[in-house]
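Students often ask why we bother encoding 3D structure as a string. The short answer is that it lets us treat folding as translation between two languages. Here is a chain of 250 residues written in the first language.
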Amino acid sequence: MAGIKIGYIDYPVELTDKDWQKKKGLIGKMTKTGIGATLKKAQALHGKIDFAKLDPAAENPRNKADLAKGKKAAEAYYKKYVVPFSASLKTVEETAKKAIKQNAKMPKKSLKAMEDIAKIASTLQVTMKSFDLEAAVNEALERIERRQKLAAKYLNDSLKKFVTGAAAFMKDPTPESWLTNIKQQGRSVSNSVKELTDYNARFWKDFEKFKGFDLGTLKLETKDPKFAQKSTAIVKLALAQVKQIAAFKP
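And here it is in the second language, the structure alphabet:
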């Protein structure tokens, strides 16, 4: 797949059975060509394609591992949905060409409609085979690398701020203190760990459990009498991991 940027491809009006029925003429309606059935099938298969899923970066991959998964998923989706659609277009083209040969005495309008169907089906086949998956992967890779440079640049600063915030929070373990000293500081560390490939592989599985340090997601009720106890326990666990991350040398 190379040449065309991945995106939605309209289904041509000329390849609809409705348009064919309008153009085939009275004599054409009395002649069995098989074109209508092939057009219906092709249009139905086109309707099943979610073109967004052909983009390897559709899920906004945060790192190279995510991008590799996205590429694999896009390739599998292409094989499952686009390949059958392309095959149906080939059938449309062959059926139209065969009908032209077998019905050379049909009205010019009908023959012209069949010629257009064969030509447009052929062109669309080429289009469907020409999605540039590698270009999409490279664009996503460039975005990932830019984000990773920023993440690497600010990682140490994020770690230091979390350590400072954790110390302040444990002196005042309240919901307000969490919002001031933990939430954003923790998210900054989370973002860097998730972005950076080596850190992601080593620490993300465990650090992800802090759910972006969102109280609701962590199911920490601000009015819970044990809020201080529960939240402090979480911060201590996070702090231990932060220290491991700080000591890590990729």
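Translate back mentally: The chain has ten helices and no strands. Keep this in mind for the problem set.
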